[in-house]
Amino acid sequence: MKINWFPGHMHKALKEIKEELKKVDVVLYVLDARIPLSSLNPKLDELSENKPVLYILNKIDIADEKRVGVLKEKFKGENKDYISYNSNFSKNTLILDKIKKLAYKKVEKYQAKGVKPTIRCMVVGVPNSGKSSLVNNLCKKAKAVTGNKAGMTKSGQWLNAGDGVEVFDTPGTLYPNIENEDVAKKLAYVGSVRDEVLEFNSLAEDLLKLLKEKYPQNIERRYPNCQTVLDIAKLRKFVLSGGEIDLERASYMLVDDFRKGRLGKITLD
Ligand SMILES: Nc1nc2c(ncn2[C@@H]2O[C@H](COP(=O)(O)OP(=O)(O)O)[C@@H](O)[C@H]2O)c(=O)[nH]1
Ligand SMILES: [Mg+2]
Prior knowledge:
7-stranded mixed beta sheet; binds guanosine-5'-diphosphate; 269 residues
């Protein structure tokens, strides 16, 4: 599967994020818990320069928590912490506590002066990992901190998440790291790569093979006795007007089932 992409754009996006990160105390790095390792972009580490990072293992509601539990030790360390999260439902107090712990140096410095500090965060991550959802989750009834008078652009401002934490309202979109084909495919399965550049039939075939290997019961439950996408198309009786089997439709269905969590809770690393 060949994916077209444009390294020039990626450099520009990273440069912009680097600029924004200067104003930030803690980086909120949103990862898709269905592919936590693959949705990591190693280039960001170079940029964030020892800033504290909270990894948000997002979409935990449709991920395999056991597998995530095995992987998440990778996200713990000096200046690093993680949290399993559902941006549509989780309570943000858990995140706020972790943010304050990660920013303890600033908190202590200000407390010594008897002042409560403002801790500024920026949300980054690959497309579709849930950055906008997280910003909304953190700043439910948020007003732009600088006031949002009518006519003012809302974007590019600090939003109040409560408890002394502010979030920059323009999430930093990282380009997916698709130099490695295995990683690229996983990013495509979850919808982090633009669908227009994908070859869906071969993508679905590869996804089916991987799921049959890693989560055989999940596939068997929804598509009994299917070894190929053609089998799935036949099972669902997807036929074109000329009588030909509609492989395309079955391919889209399988990928969509995975994306929406209809195949169950799955994590592919
Ligand atoms: N199941 C589930 N879906 C989520 C979660 N967070 C975000 N989404 C969905 O993932 C899709 C992409 O989210 P969005 O916030 O736009 O991602 P962004 O491109 O990183 O800003 C949307 O359909 C969201 O509703 C989550 O924790 N669980
Ligand atoms: Mg967004």
